[in-house]
Amino acid sequence: MRDATPTASHYVDGAYLEDAEGAAIEVIYPATGARIATVHSASGQVVEAALAAATRAQPAWAALPGVERGRVLRRAADILRARNRELSELETLDTGKPLSETLVADATSAADALEYFGGLAAAITGEHIPLADGDFVYTRREALGVCVGIGAWNYPTQIAAWKAAPALACGNTMVFKPSETTPLCALKLAEILTEAGAPPGVFNVVNGLGDVGAALVADGRVAKVSLTGSVPTGRKVYAAAAQGMKHATMELGGKSPLVIFDDADLESAISAAINGNFYSTGQICSNGTRVFVQSGIKEAFLERLAERTANATLGDPLDEATTLGPMVSAAQLEIVLDYVARGRAEGARLVTGGARVEREGFWIEPTVFADVTDDMTIAREEIFGPVMTVLDFETEDEALARANATEYGLAAGVFTADLTRAHRMAAGFEAGTTWINTYNLTPVEAPFGGSKMSGVGRENSAAAIAHWSELKSVYVSLNPTEAPF
Ligand SMILES: NC(=O)c1ccc[n+]([C@@H]2O[C@H](COP(=O)([O-])OP(=O)(O)OC[C@H]3O[C@@H](n4cnc5c(N)ncnc54)[C@H](O)[C@@H]3O)[C@@H](O)[C@H]2O)c1
Ligand SMILES: O=CCc1c[nH]cn1
């Protein structure tokens, strides 16, 4: 297995920075369990250097015309696309996701974000509000300042870019902390932004565990924190951000419903259930892990689903023929196996899968449970692995009520040929991101994010600009100012 050790553990002030003082973090290739790199957790000096660099760089970066900031982002997008294969291979090594996925969903998604927000940067403007007697107000959309991004391990390149692109477009600078499980890819994004012309300090990466993230969030120079992670971490980070009255975006977990009515195109609905449960080996926040199937089509659905699931190709993730990779880590594999055991113990019917795959690395079969009831643990808790739960329903009202009966509210999907019903369901879902007759498509043009415990704020689309900037109003009087005395 190749050595994927980066030039150094951190990227600060436009250059790689090593700091052997910090605890060693071993990077494990999930497909084999082999160590492929070692990085060091950031010491206090590295955290300080990164925050100081971001603070120094911010005023000049914000003062550039938007069109110039945008040009840097768009150049970075071009570099990402030109190096897509190399970056996709690194994403595969970092996460274990198969190259057949990473070639189309990671550096390319990051490039889309940089291109989109690069294009938007020059259009981040205020408005003119006319008032009585010629007075008027104009608004200025201003940068927040130094922002902190903290990432999860499932999409290390995409998560870094979905935060960096709108943040930088608005004139902010950023210190980004990747997940300690996948510390390699964000360093490449930093290197590429420098190559594209981003001044030193505009985008910095510090690696480390939760304590490094906590130190960044607590720092008084930081104006905004954007976390992608679990609900328990979100609670801590949101609370810490509130101490400093910082802006916050929380992109957290989910237990999203996918509702399939008996008039749906069955093959499409099964494709959506497969994509929404097994893509990235089930490690996607918005996955439709509660698949509600109308009872009339349940057995046909399960039979065809099992048939198609048997076609998954588990194998070397670097082989483009592979369509299902391992879990990201031994710890995540154990969590998922434990949920499978609980599903069995609580009486769900195992349709397919359920076993650890006996080979080196962290492998599990794609798993489908049927006859799942709403109270079962596997129907209530986020598993974050390739475990689909299929639940039966009879009526639309029942399906909607049960779909919404969760503390989460990240995503939801509906499959039906009845478009009136589809829009009724989409309006009724208590979720931030919804799909009709498809699932899990997340183009940069569409807002992405959750409601309820799944989060606060939105990434992507023009809506993200409001979350990475502050509005100032300027009242201009064309009249003499009067006073009562
Ligand atoms: N909504 C989304 O967009 C989205 C996308 C991907 C993943 N996720 C969620 O992420 C979770 C899986 O990722 P994970 O296991 O890496 O999540 P996690 O919550 O364990 O960790 C996320 C990040 O937070 C850091 N962290 C931990 N404690 C911290 C603290 N006290 N202060 C600051 N930072 C801290 C970690 O080091 C890591 O970088 C799942 O719940 C998944 O649904 C959400
Ligand atoms: O993991 C959550 C974000 C996402 C959804 N689809 C691709 N990435």
TrEMBL record:
Pfam annotation, one family: Aldedh
InterPro entries with a match to the protein in the record: Ald_DH/histidinol_DH, Ald_DH_C, Ald_DH_CS_CYS, Ald_DH_CS_GLU, Ald_DH_N, Aldehyde_DH_dom, BADH
Domain Aldehyde dehydrogenase, first and last residues per copy: 20-474
Domain of life: Bacteria
EC assignment: 1.2.1.8
NCBIfam families on file: BADH (TIGR01804), PRK13252.1 (NF009725)
Active site per the UniProt annotation: E251
PANTHER family the UniProt entry points to: ALDEHYDE DEHYDROGENASE-RELATED (PTHR11699)
Enzyme class: oxidoreductase
Transmembrane region(s): none
UniProt GO MF annotations: betaine-aldehyde dehydrogenase (NAD+) activity; metal ion binding
Biological-process GO terms, alphabetical: glycine betaine biosynthetic process from choline
Name of the protein in question: Betaine-aldehyde dehydrogenase
KW Transmembrane (keyword) present: no
